[in-house]
Design goal:
The chain is an alpha/beta fold and 260 residues long. Helix content is 39%, strand content 13%. The protein has helices at residues 2-7, 30-42, 63-80, 100-114, 139-148, 161-166, 175-185, 220-228, 245-258, and strands at residues 14-16, 49-51, 87-90, 122-126, 155-160, 191-196, 198-199, 210-211, 237-239. The chain starts with a helix and ends with a helix. The mean pLDDT is 96.
Length: 260
């Protein structure tokens, strides 16, 4: 993965720890991991970001499904601890008629069992589009989770530009206001990563359909303001646009060209 990132001009990457739909991960290969760590150091990579399978639901009503999410994440975090500075991102989950408060309680209590004082990997909650009964569609919901976590220094937020726009935050016309709100509610110190995506749908659609940079309702100029914003410009950015490698290479080149 490191070599692929280099080949398209990237200096970080995001990857799924296992099949995004869940299931078993490949056995951990220590020699392979050491090689990657060396490549990341030699090429001065920004922190790499692991993404939990998006089918995990830490706030499912079914106790077995909640336990499965917890077991997978525990295993993933142990693996990620082999990569200095790495972070681990997950979708808070869907409360499915139980209500966000029940969801928030399940998610935070899972984190309190999961997080260990000795771990180095920072765990990120992703801002969600609010599709269906997703928890994390507002900064307030994410803050409510963080507030219940004891080891808060092991936690952060990953802001997905498509998701927050879909969730109703106008990052196109009022980026400063949105970030001010984030700072007031959660604190910008907690913002650790950006998923840089355009959106196939207008603001507030709650659909979660990513579009290529400049091809959607957010648009190129608004995304350029995101990467250059003084509060964001030093964060790592991860593309999740519908592309193959040449498309990613072109978007990276375009963003580098437009970065102030
Ligand atoms: Fe995600
Ligand atoms: Fe995302
Ligand atoms: Zn998404």
């Amino acid at each position: 993965m490191g070599k692929t990132a280099l080949s398209i001009g990237a200096d970080t990457f995001q990857f799924f720890t296992r099949n995004p739909r869940g299931g078993a991960a490949k056995p951990f290969d220590k020699a392979d991991a050491a090689k990657l760590v060396e490549l990341l150091e030699t090429n001065h990579f920004a922190p790499i970001l692991a993404h939990a399978p998006y089918t995990l639901n830490a706030c499912a009503s079914d106790a077995g499904l909640r336990q499965f999410a917890e077991d997978v994440m525990a295993d993933d975090i142990v693996r990620m601890d082999h990569f200095p500075g790495a972070m681990y991102n997950f979708h808070p989950g869907s409360h499915v008629k139980q209500g966000p408060d029940v969801g928030i309680e399940y998610i935070s209590s899972m984190l309190n069992r999961l997080l260990k004082p000795s771990q180095k990997t920072v765990v990120l909650l992703e801002t969600m589009a609010g599709k269906g009964s997703e928890v994390g569609r507002t900064f307030e919901e994410l803050k409510a989770i963080l507030d219940r976590v004891e080891l808060r220094d092991k936690m952060g937020i990953c802001l997905d530009t498509c998701h927050v726009f879909d969730g109703g935050y106008d990052i196109v016309n009022h980026l400063d206001d949105v970030l001010e709100q984030f700072d007031k509610v959660i604190g910008l110190k907690k913002l650790k990563a950006i998923h840089l995506n355009d959106s196939k749908n207008p603001m507030g659609s709650h659909k979660d359909r990513h579009e290529v940079i400049g091809g959607g309702f957010i648009g190129l100029e608004a995304l350029v303001r995101v990467i250059n914003h003084p509060s964001l410009r030093n964060l790592p950015f991860y593309l999740e646009t519908p592309n193959e490698l040449p498309g990613y290479a072109a978007e990276i080149a375009l963003m580098r060209d437009r970065s102030a």
